[in-house]
């Protein structure tokens, strides 16, 4: 018999702090808002951008796992979230820039309730916070959506991956699922206020990577990030070969 | 049926009396805190705490008493919101919120039992307690996840009993045209009960009541609260139930004691839950009080206990139209 009372991780936090807490756990209302948002986004992406997913069979059905992808647009996290189904979708958290997505309370409420985002603060995310994220990933069987470049690419070229991904999974059997999003930069460029309907969007999902042997130190994190980066690059569409004469 | 004079919300002198007394207590306590602040006797931290509590009461009291004055539907709606707020805190504190199927069934049960009260359908109202308990017992079986079955089912059934079936009795009372003085009396008497226990405990002191459960409660405070609350409820009850079989000193005193004992039992029940979980407050919604449950714990058991005492002697809404929605 298993008696184990576990209060919510964010119990006792004032509402505004709860929105920004890494321990935030959604209840019935949060789940319902998030599910409605996910369906609306999926419908929009399909209708306005002809959103296609290739390799969906590579996604684990349940957490824990981490989805990593190239980052060029605000559509990226929405598209990755829309590709998830079932228990994984309910426990999916996009790791989002705190300054941008949690700057004020209204924006934090939207990020927390709709996108189910967790804030990562540029330059001031402490080791303890990363440890919390690493622990929650395994204990709560979460699915993290992470863009290891650290910021949206303005040129469309993918930047090198930061070692933060490695801090989450090095030395564990937690799968890292490489993804490539094609067309997001055209569909919603970093400089535009709103997305541009009509531009196609496609997601390729590669087979998961695991890093049980990687050491949980800087060298280990970097090896994880490098391997994930190579896997994501491998999914990018190859430029068409020049026509043979 | 509870005797009631014809007229609007303030037709019954007890209604007017309770509202005026509440406003007076609020004004006097505000002046007392002001005097304490000016005289510099209290530490700034304690003063802040007092003001916070007082301000919370100023927001809370209109939200509690207002719907009762407005009418039947408003009272039942307010009880529904209170039930859902209490359940939310309980679910987050116990971890039951992670069981979304059970949580959804508890919420549906809360909505259904309050709908039965709004419909004035007593048969459905009482049937929902066993029916919801059965549904909670079986609904997670198809998940094929027996690990933790007893814990999650027990937590959900306790939740529905306390916040659904139990609290809904308070709303059901509004089906009687003469509900206002009784509901207002219960709302204010449980608050007075807490204050009396605190004050008597501080003034008299002495041995602790249940130190492991609630370290600040004393036996003298508990008995003092029984004395004060019983006296007040019996006296006001005599004015409310004049001319009914309940207007007998023995039963009026029994009703008063029931309010006090059930109120304190509800308080201790919540203390036990909090101690078991190792938390201090159930929430942060009410500054100076904690969560909604920390404020309304005393009402949880008083509502069904007093309901059935009055139902036995007098009956609720015996001449009011029944099944007003479902026909």
Automatic annotation (TrEMBL), chain A:
<dbReference type="Pfam" id="PF01553">
    <property type="entry name" value="Acyltransferase"/>
</dbReference>
<comment type="pathway">
    <text>Lipid metabolism.</text>
</comment>
<protein>
    <submittedName>
        <fullName>1-acyl-sn-glycerol-3-phosphate acyltransferase</fullName>
    </submittedName>
</protein>
<keyword id="KW-0012">Acyltransferase</keyword>
<feature type="domain" description="Phospholipid/glycerol acyltransferase">
    <location>
        <begin position="65"/>
        <end position="184"/>
    </location>
</feature>
<dbReference type="GO" id="GO:0006654">
    <property type="term" value="P:phosphatidic acid biosynthetic process"/>
</dbReference>
<dbReference type="GO" id="GO:0003841">
    <property type="term" value="F:1-acylglycerol-3-phosphate O-acyltransferase activity"/>
</dbReference>
<keyword id="KW-0808">Transferase</keyword>
<dbReference type="InterPro" id="IPR002123">
    <property type="entry name" value="Plipid/glycerol_acylTrfase"/>
</dbReference>
């Amino acid at each position: 018999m298993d008696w184990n009372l576990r209060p919510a991780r964010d119990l006792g936090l004032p509402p505004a702090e709860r929105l920004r807490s890494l321990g935030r756990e959604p209840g019935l209302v949060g789940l319902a808002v998030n599910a409605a948002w996910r369906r609306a986004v999926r419908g929009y992406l399909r209708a306005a951008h002809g959103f296609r997913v290739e390799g969906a069979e590579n996604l684990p059905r349940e957490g824990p796992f981490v989805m990593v992808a190239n980052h060029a647009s605000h559509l990226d996290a929405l598209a990755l979230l829309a590709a998830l189904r079932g228990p994984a979708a309910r426990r999916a958290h996009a790791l989002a820039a705190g300054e941008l997505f949690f700057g004020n309370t209204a924006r934090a409420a939207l990020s927390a309730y709709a996108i189910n985002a967790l804030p990562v603060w540029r330059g001031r995310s402490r080791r303890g916070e990363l440890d919390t994220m690493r622990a929650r990933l395994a204990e709560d069987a979460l699915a993290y959506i992470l863009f290891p470049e650290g910021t949206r690419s303005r040129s469309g070229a993918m930047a090198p991956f930061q070692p933060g991904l490695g801090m989450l999974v090095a030395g564990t059997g937690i799968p890292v699922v490489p993804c490539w999003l094609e067309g997001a930069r055209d569909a919603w460029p970093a400089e535009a206020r709103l997305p541009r309907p009509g531009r196609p969007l496609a997601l390729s999902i590669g087979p998961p990577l695991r890093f049980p042997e990687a050491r949980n130190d800087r060298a280990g994190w970097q090896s994880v990030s490098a391997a994930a980066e190579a896997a994501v690059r491998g999914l990018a569409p190859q430029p068409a070969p020049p026509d043979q004469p | 049926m509870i005797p009631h004079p014809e007229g609007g919300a303030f037709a019954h002198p007890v209604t007017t009396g309770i509202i005026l007394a509440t406003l007076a207590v609020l004004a006097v306590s505000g002046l007392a805190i002001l005097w304490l602040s000016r005289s510099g006797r209290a530490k700034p931290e304690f003063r802040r705490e007092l003001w916070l509590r007082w301000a919370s009461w100023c927001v809370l009291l209109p939200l509690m008493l207002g719907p009762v004055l407005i009418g039947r539907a408003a009272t039942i709606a307010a009880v529904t919101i209170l039930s859902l707020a209490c359940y939310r805190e309980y679910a987050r504190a116990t971890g039951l919120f992670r069981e979304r199927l059970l949580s959804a069934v508890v919420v549906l049960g809360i909505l259904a039992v309050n709908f039965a009260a709004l419909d004035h359908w007593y048969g459905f109202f009482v049937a929902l307690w066993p029916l919801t308990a059965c549904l909670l017992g079986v609904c997670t079986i198809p998940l094929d996840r027996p690990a933790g079955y007893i814990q999650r089912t027990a937590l959900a059934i306790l939740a529905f009993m306390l916040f659904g079936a139990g609290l809904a009795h308070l709303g059901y009372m509004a089906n009687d045209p003469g509900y206002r003085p009784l509901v207002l009396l219960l709302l204010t008497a449980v608050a007075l009960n807490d204050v009396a226990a605190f004050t008597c405990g501080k003034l008299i002191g002495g041995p602790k009541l249940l130190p492991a459960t609630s370290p600040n409660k004393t036996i003298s405070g508990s008995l003092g609260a029984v004395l004060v609350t019983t006296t007040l409820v019996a006296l006001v009850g005599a004015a409310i139930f004049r001319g009914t079989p309940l207007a007998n000193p023995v039963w009026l005193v029994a009703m008063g004691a029931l309010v006090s004992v059930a109120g304190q039992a509800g308080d201790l029940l919540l203390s036990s839950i909090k101690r078991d979980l190792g938390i201090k407050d159930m929430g942060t919604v009410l500054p100076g009080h904690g969560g909604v449950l920390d404020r309304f714990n005393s009402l949880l058991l008083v509502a069904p206990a007093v309901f059935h005492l009055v139902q036995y002697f007098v009956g609720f809404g015996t001449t009011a139209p029944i099944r007003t929605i479902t026909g």
